[in-house]
Amino acid sequence: MGRKAKSGGRIAGRERRRESGSDSRVRSSEGREKQEATQRARLLARFEGIEPDGRIICQFGSHAETQFADGSRLLCMLSPKVHKLQGVCVGDLVWTERGATDAERIIQGRVPRRNELRRRRGEDDHTGHVIAANVDVMAITTALKEPPLRTGALDRYLVLASLLGIEPMIVLTKLDQSPSTDPGWQAIEPYRSLGVPIVATSATSGEGLDDLREALAGRISVFAGHSGVGKSSLCLALGLVGAPEAGEMSRSGGRVRGRHKTSIARLLDLPGGGRVVDTPGVRAIGLVDLCRTDAPIHFPDFAVFAEKCAYRDCLHLEEEDCAVRIAVASGELAASRYESYRRLMATLED
User: Which of 3.30.200.20, 3.40.50.300, 3.90.550.10, 3.40.640.10 is the CATH number of 116-278?
Assistant: First the structure.
């Protein structure tokens, strides 16, 4: 009995030490976060009342191409504090100061962001990588035929725009390859009823480009869409300075998809006013701050039916007397939208 008691005591002791070590690590992490938050506040306080003098055009590790009020651009180094405490990305407003010479500028602070666009690097990436900030318009770019229209991707981008408070717009590309009989036109109809602006364009013929320029003028926009939908070709057709060359289509394995041509995000000037963020093709869309209970809010076409659901917290999945599912069955609500919702919900946590 004595040996068993001692053995039990040793095990209990190890468990207490393990728990104590875990608590210590949590406290240490919380302490570091609190300390860094204090340092960030001091960093911002230094520039209180001072207008930022630059905007990040492209970011390369510890350096960033920065555009200034007079239109000039310079590759600036991030100060160690900014690199550690804030970081920068395309679209950020920053404060810079003179470096070792008049020709050098060092980024000494970043203005707090209005929003952040994140790209997930894989299924295990739960925080995502920030690729652009302070965006006004999300130009959700898609082709109707080549590659085929993916309504699921459209819906996820619309949810992302709603989540971030960014105005959405659907930009159809390759209009010259999409005759009026193309089934993609019917698939796009539910988005018209949602009130989402839709601009049909052709980088080849130039059709719709003036309408798109007008919609983007004076604002910062991001072209969001899978590789191959024609984002780079559209940038070139719009006359965006520094736009990347268009990539070729891949048809391997019987699937039509684009080859990645844009490798990093870059802020491009739109002739006549406005800026556009050209981003890498996004396969894993960064809905990193969304939970299941909030997801229905970002499907506004569900709202009028959801009011009639039997349960106020109905998730519109398996609940009885769900008015949303009844509307789908009756054809009042687009089945494609609901299927996108179900697929999204399967990826989210409570």
Answer: 3.40.50.300
